[in-house]
Design brief:
The protein has about 350 residues and is α/β, with parallel strands linked by helices. The protein has 11 helices and 14 strands. About 30% of the residues lie in helices and about 20% in strands. The chain is elongated and about 75 Å long.
């Protein structure tokens, strides 16, 4: 097999989810499976978390539709608002819940519903400091004055921009509580949620009615919580490993190792069928489709080429989220359970 083989441990993901559900002290768990579950396979992860997660979150309407096609019946929250009538209509047809992040989102959904005689489920997104999506105070006030129309408001949400900073998180939480009070004055009891993985680590009280856990499901944590909180201390298990076949074994005979002037310390080389087109970071002798490794290999054998997203992130000046999301563009996934 020429493809990189990504092995995903669904049992590890389920175990990680249960640990965060326990940390949330009874709040509902929303499993974030956007970007194909951070490269782990959204449909398989969602099915593995049945009975543990009460709902799922995706970024795009198309991701939510794919989960419905895969037989996922639980609530699905689309974190990015629809940008066209087609996306709004598709999301409504598949029973997705939208985040309404500004008055234009509300107008697009209302117009689509009016045109086709439909209703849309939504949560209000308020900006408490991240400045990515969300209504400011004036926009929220204007939204709350709107006629009820065809939008069924079921929740109110926000997002911590720096949950590891206790003072900043506390300020955001106070702003969010004030916005929740105003929204519930207008709509009655709503599902309130602000905490993702980092918010839950910062203070379990931030879980409120629901916690949206993403990176933690896959065995990693946002930066800024060590040494008090580490994956090992929380009992989390990384869920992904990747393997590549040895395509050739060679003896160094001068020159380089792939591109460039680098020379090995010894003479044994193995050519691994993996490269940056497979999601690995380009460094040294990694080419688009192959890597020349300083090792004694067995032709056609398998070599583990990825097991620790934090280590790869540290070496490449990025974060584990990006590392995981890149993996497996051309890979074949194998699933194990425990």
């Amino acid at each position: 097999m020429q493809q990189v083989r990504v092995v995903v441990d669904l049992g590890a993901i389920r175990s990680n989810a249960r640990r965060f559900a326990a940390l949330a002290n009874g709040a509902a768990l929303c499993a974030v499976v956007k970007a194909d579950a951070y490269g782990h396979g959204a449909a398989m992860v969602a099915h593995a978390l049945r009975g543990v997660a009460g709902s799922f979150a995706v970024a795009l309407v198309s991701e939510g539709a794919a989960l419905r096609h895969a037989g996922v019946a639980e609530d699905i929250l689309a974190l990015v608002p629809p940008l066209t009538e087609e996306e709004a209509l598709r999301g409504i047809a598949y029973g997705l819940t939208f985040l309404v992040t500004d008055l234009a989102d509300a107008a697009l959904l209302e117009a689509t519903c009016e045109k086709y005689g439909l209703f849309a489920r939504c949560h209000i997104k308020v900006n408490t400091g991240m400045n990515r999506f969300g209504m400011d105070e004036a926009a929220l006030a204007a939204f709350l004055r709107r006629p009820r129309g065809r939008l069924r408001v079921e929740g109110v949400a926000s997002h911590f921009y720096c949950p590891e900073d206790a003072a900043a998180a506390a300020r955001q939480f106070a702003l969010f509580l004030a916005a929740c009070a105003r929204a519930e004055d207008a709509f009655g009891r709503l599902q309130k949620h602000i905490a993702a993985t980092g918010g839950l680590l910062a203070d379990p009280a931030y879980a409120m009615d629901m916690a949206r856990v993403g990176i933690g499901l896959y065995g990693y944590l946002p930066r800024g919580f060590a040494p008090a909180a580490t994956p090992a201390a929380l009992g989390l298990r990384p869920a992904m490993r990747a393997y590549a076949r040895v395509a050739a074994v060679r003896k160094y005979r001068g020159g380089g190792m792939g591109y460039g002037r680098r020379a090995p310390a010894g003479e044994d080389l193995a050519v691994l069928r993996c490269g940056y087109a497979d999601g690995l970071f380009r460094e040294g002798n990694l080419c688009m489709d192959a890597r020349v490794a300083e090792m004694r290999g067995e032709k056609y054998g398998e070599v583990c080429v990825f097991s620790d997203a934090d280590a790869v992130a540290e070496a490449n000046h990025t974060i584990s989220y990006e590392v995981l999301a890149r993996m497996g563009g051309r890979a074949v996934r194998d699933y194990v359970d425990g």
